[in-house]
Automatic annotation (TrEMBL):
<dbReference type="InterPro" id="IPR017438">
    <property type="entry name" value="ATP-NAD_kinase_N"/>
</dbReference>
<feature type="binding site">
    <location>
        <position position="79"/>
    </location>
    <ligand>
        <name>NAD(+)</name>
    </ligand>
</feature>
<dbReference type="InterPro" id="IPR016064">
    <property type="entry name" value="NAD/diacylglycerol_kinase_sf"/>
</dbReference>
<keyword id="KW-0521">NADP</keyword>
<feature type="binding site">
    <location>
        <begin position="147"/>
        <end position="148"/>
    </location>
    <ligand>
        <name>NAD(+)</name>
    </ligand>
</feature>
<feature type="binding site">
    <location>
        <begin position="74"/>
        <end position="75"/>
    </location>
    <ligand>
        <name>NAD(+)</name>
    </ligand>
</feature>
<keyword id="KW-0067">ATP-binding</keyword>
<keyword id="KW-0418">Kinase</keyword>
<dbReference type="InterPro" id="IPR017437">
    <property type="entry name" value="ATP-NAD_kinase_PpnK-typ_C"/>
</dbReference>
<feature type="binding site">
    <location>
        <position position="177"/>
    </location>
    <ligand>
        <name>NAD(+)</name>
    </ligand>
</feature>
<feature type="binding site">
    <location>
        <position position="212"/>
    </location>
    <ligand>
        <name>NAD(+)</name>
    </ligand>
</feature>
<comment type="similarity">
    <text>Belongs to the NAD kinase family.</text>
</comment>
<keyword id="KW-0808">Transferase</keyword>
<dbReference type="InterPro" id="IPR002504">
    <property type="entry name" value="NADK"/>
</dbReference>
<comment type="function">
    <text>Involved in the regulation of the intracellular balance of NAD and NADP, and is a key enzyme in the biosynthesis of NADP. Catalyzes specifically the phosphorylation on 2'-hydroxyl of the adenosine moiety of NAD to yield NADP.</text>
</comment>
<dbReference type="Pfam" id="PF01513">
    <property type="entry name" value="NAD_kinase"/>
</dbReference>
<feature type="binding site">
    <location>
        <begin position="188"/>
        <end position="193"/>
    </location>
    <ligand>
        <name>NAD(+)</name>
    </ligand>
</feature>
């Protein structure tokens, strides 16, 4: 098996755990690939990895990868999606930090996780994505997101008004600091911190969540993910901040956004003994109430 490691940053505290990754992978006869920018840094610490492979874009990644291993946190996991795209290559998230809903395999479970992979003791959790279209061609060929799209005011303290149509029907004009449109995966990210609901993976929905709405009776809305969404904004500023996961662009006030479900999914590896619901309980500290 060809395993490609993806990092956002390569920290020195990762090295002891990466040694576990390399030792187990080599013991199983698997090959390791690294992003070119990290390869030589890694060889300084692990000179025994002379035959390590490399990739520098999504095409070379897809040509040489059977399994993507995201090493870091949820931000790194989102970066891995830019390499995987519609290739169908499965991804496993190895959490090197604290809070991680996507990268949910702890660094202490590396060997156990690899052995489960070898024995095919896992399932694929298919995660849907959303995509954005616009006349400006925003984000180029990276116009998709695993978590969410966010439209937000930029510099001014003033609110903006965001008009939203759903399935070719007017929904609402939100007076707020911004608006989040998220997938079920993104329901535990920015949307959650703004009062949005937790949606289990596999639900075919999108969540529309306002950011600090001026009208207190405005609440998040859950809609079928096959409903197209049209978004436009007005305000005192001439530009607004638009984000797709961890990427951002500035857009003008006359830009119209069209959001829909992407035509591909990402295969996230899940083990039977640690599911999405286990992750939710652990990360949100549910169950610590003495009554449980």
């Amino acid at each position: 098996m060809r395993v490609s490691l993806i990092f956002s940053v390569l920290k020195t505290e990762y090295y002891p755990h990466l040694k576990d990754v390399f030792d187990v992978a080599l013991e199983l006869g698997w090959t390791i690939n690294l992003e070119t920018m990290y390869k030589f840094q890694m060889l300084e610490h692990f000179p025994e990895l002379e035959s390590i492979g490399e990739f520098n874009d999504y095409k070379s990644f897809q040509e040489n990868t059977d399994l993507a291993l995201s090493v870091g946190g949820d931000g790194t996991f989102l970066k891995s999606v830019l390499f995987i795209r519609d290739s169908g290559i499965p991804v496993l998230g190895l959490n090197m930090g604290r809070l991680g809903f996507l990268a949910n395999i702890s660094k202490e479970r590396i060997k156990e996780a690899f052995l489960k992979l070898k024995n095919e003791e896992y399932t694929f959790n298919e995660r849907s994505l959303l995509k954005i279209d616009s006349e400006e061609g925003l984000f180029g060929d990276e116009n998709f997101a695993l978590n969410e799209l966010t439209l937000h005011k930029k510099d001014s303290a003033s609110m903006i008004s965001i008009e939203v149509d759903v399935n070719n029907e007017y929904l609402n004009t939100y007076w707020a600091d911004g608006l989040i449109i998220s997938t079920p995966t993104g329901s535990t990210a920015y949307s959650l911190s703004c009062g949005g609901p937790i949606i289990t993976p596999g639900c075919q929905v999108h969540i529309i969540t306002p950011v600090a709405p001026h009208n207190l009776n405005v609440r998040p809305v859950v809609i079928p993910d096959n409903f197209p969404i049209k978004v436009s904004a007005e305000g005192r500023d001439s530009t607004y901040l638009l984000t797709l996961d961890s990427r951002s662009e500035f857009i003008s006030h006359d830009c119209v956004l069209y959001i829909s479900k992407a035509d591909f999914t990402v295969k996230v590896i899940e083990f039977d003994d640690y599911t999405f619901l286990d992750t939710i309980r652990d990360k949100l500290l549910w169950g610590l109430d003495k009554r449980n």
